[in-house]
Write a structure and sequence with these properties.
The chain is of the alpha/beta class. It has 18 helices and 27 strands. It starts with a strand and ends in a 6-residue tail after the last strand.
Length: 641
């Protein structure tokens, strides 16, 4: 007799692991029918144990163990995938149910009975993670290398999987890589219609010849025995890490799945994460050692925008008050004259990032969560509406009208600071009256269709200027952009987070790669990161940053675990103190979150530092898994703030 752990497939219900027994032998990934509340429903088998070895556990159960109703398919998801996912859940101190739900598209999970694989992957005898081969190069060069890898895989009778962090980037890759292999290329992202997704999924499963699967991490559950290579494009993207529980990193899933299948991993980026680069360098294998050379034959100009006092008048000059420098405006005007597209990057949506009282210096903050209020220009919901400017909290959504005064001294003398996309666009409309300005942020674009339409109009304009936040970056590939201006990234360097210099260096590298000329505006021109970025000295920047991390015991020399608690301040501090005791002998610090009050409740973290090579610690994993839902556990977080 076999004891089965299963996850029932119920629409709209969170996955929950249940236990049954069966007389027949089966493997994880099988699809069975189980009785639940008087109904027989399909369920995925996640674990199989021998009843003889579980007799003691069975006797302790507070319920009668029921038998499954039958077997629908001996294998729905591959055993290799299920084995990898179990290790991923363990690494992230999560249970398999939520991890499976996060890894498999809802459409596939609810219709897996219709998607029966005929040849799924089996677990390697000894799953072993292999150091990935790292390709640090321009987007154009990476795509060319990927085409070569696809040809090599097909020649070796192996399938290959290319994963991008977002649907937009996956669409771009599919357009680039499917030429010449259209019948063997399958595009799989969860945003496809149910019919298209199921058709593509089954087609990839049924194909007799090796295939190339191009999509997001949602396609990893598609199990084929012949997968020999996984490519992780834009390896540094934060979109690989889920922003909600159970905070699973898809890059970890790829590595574990490759280990189960005995496949290789290739990571590509303009400048990969330091953790990935260090692994490739310290492996001592010259065949996977990355190149740090960057092309800086194009024009890259650093402009000092600091508001220093004028030596004669002791007043800030009008020139240094400008939102856009003369160099930036000249570059944009040149592109317009040449009939070429241009792009202006702004870090934040809205108009001005924060507002300060000129009388007492108090920053205007949200009365509910204490985050700085952001000024937004009028956004009429219906044509003809008369809307007003407003202050909005990007943390909790609170809105205040602009007819407000300082919360401390009741002064009306409020001054706005910071560059949002709206302020940049407003300035460009004023300075370049003939320019066609297109604005892309979460305020102006709320659906993929709207984004595609906006980008289409920008490209068709011939010489338009796109002003956008991070969400616009994925659309620059293939857009033939002439001039790019970084309006400001100084806020990132001001944040006390370990990855900020790396993020700035990567942003400059990415935008330099996507354009013919780049202008960087900053009020901190002496920051070392700009010196490295302007010259394209990736190796110098890597050595500086990794040296700091080694001295300070930051990743990759430590694994960080961020435990967050939200509630009444006394209860939060008491419970995080318990986490401090629980995590001994590892070092743990307790501190308030960057935004410490949200909707009147206190928000704080306990950051556990685990020395390299020790995580996952079995004892601590068990304890973290047992924490109540009032805690959130994030292993290897993107940010510690």
């Amino acid at each position: 007799m076999k004891i089965l752990s299963v996850i029932p497939i119920l629409k709209g219900v969170a996955p929950e692991t249940l236990t049954y027994y069966a007389s027949a032998d089966m493997r994880p990934g099988a699809l069975v029918r189980v009785p639940v509340r008087g109904k027989s429903i399909p369920a995925i088998v996640t674990r199989v144990d021998e009843a003889s070895s579980s007799k003691t556990d069975i006797k302790r159960l507070a319920f009668t163990l029921k038998k499954i109703d039958g077997v629908i398919a001996e294998q729905c998801f591959g055993e290799a995938f299920m084995s990898a996912l179990a290790r991923v859940a363990h690494y992230h101190a999560s249970s398999l149910g939520p991890t499976l739900s996060a890894a498999v598209p809802k459409t596939i999970f609810e219709n897996c009975a219709e998607l029966i694989a005929k040849d799924v992957g089996t677990v390697a005898s000894e799953p072993k993670r292999i150091t990935p081969r790292l390709i640090q190069a321009s987007y154009e060069d990476r795509v060319a290398r990927y085409r070569s890898f696809i040809r090599e895989s097909f020649a070796q009778q192996k399938s290959i999987v290319v994963i991008a962090p977002t649907t937009v980037e996956a669409e771009s890759l599919f357009g680039e890589l499917s030429h010449g292999v259209t019948e063997r290329a399958f595009f799989i992202v969860p945003s496809l219609t149910k019919k298209k997704l199921l058709t593509a999924w089954q087609g990839a499963l049924d194909a007799d010849a090796p295939v190339v699967i191009i999509g997001t991490a949602a396609s990893l559950a598609l199990s084929r025995r012949d997968i020999g290579t996984f490519i992780i494009e834009h390896e540094s993207s934060p979109h690989y890490k889920s922003q909600t529980r159970p905070f699973i990193d898809a890059r970890t899933t790829i590595h574990e799945l490759a280990a189960s299948l005995g496949a290789s991993v290739i990571a590509g980026d303009i400048f990969a994460r330091l953790e990935t680069s260090t692994g490739a360098i310290e492996a001592g294998d010259e065949s996977i050692r990355p190149s740090f050379r960057q092309d800086r034959t194009k024009s890259v100009t650093l402009v000092d925008m600091s508001t220093k006092k004028d030596s004669e008048t002791q007043q800030r000059t009008e020139e240094k008050k400008k939102v856009m420098s003369n160099e930036a405006l000249a570059a944009l005007m040149r592109s317009m004259a040449l009939g070429r597209l241009s792009f202006v990057y702004s870090l934040r949506k809205g108009h001005s990032g924060f507002t300060v009282c000129r009388d007492c210096g108090k920053v205007l903050t949200c009365d509910r969560c204490a985050a700085p209020m952001v000024l937004h220009l009028p956004r009429p919901k219906v044509a003809g509406d008369v809307a007003e400017r407003s202050f909005e909290c990007h943390r909790c959504g609170r809105v205040r009208n602009t007819h407000t005064v300082c919360d401390d001294c009741s002064s009306w003398r409020l001054e706005m600071y910071g560059l949002g996309v709206e302020k940049v666009a407003e300035t460009l409309h004023s300075e370049l009256s003939d320019a066609q300005i297109f604005t892309m942020s979460a305020d102006t674009v709320t659906t993929p269709a709207q984004a595609r339409e906006l980008i289409k109009r920008w490209k068709e304009s011939g010489n338009g200027i796109l002003v956008g936040t991070d969400m616009a970056l994925a659309y620059l590939h293939g857009a033939s952009v002439d001039a790019v201006v970084i309006a400001s990234v100084d806020t990132l360097l001001a944040l006390p987070d370990i990855g900020m210099p790396e993020r700035v260096f990567r942003l400059v590298s990415e935008l330099a790669d996507a354009s013919e000329s780049l202008v960087i505006q900053t009020r901190n021109p002496d920051a070392a990161v700009f010196s490295f970025a302007v010259s394209g000295d990736g190796w110098g920047f890597y050595q500086q940053e990794i040296g700091k991390r080694k001295i300070l015991s930051y990743p990759p020399y430590m694994t960080l675990i961020k435990v967050t608690r939200h509630g009444e301040e006394a209860a939060v501090m008491r419970d995080l103190g318990m986490i401090h005791e629980m995590s001994l002998p590892y070092q743990t610090i307790v501190y308030p979150a960057f935004i410490s009050h949200v909707k009147g409740m206190y928000n704080a973290h306990a950051l556990i530092s685990i020395p390299q090579g020790i995580w996952p610690d079995e004892r601590l994993v068990t304890q973290l898994r047992g924490l109540p839902p009032t805690f959130t556990v994030n292993v290897a977080p993107e940010s510690v703030l």
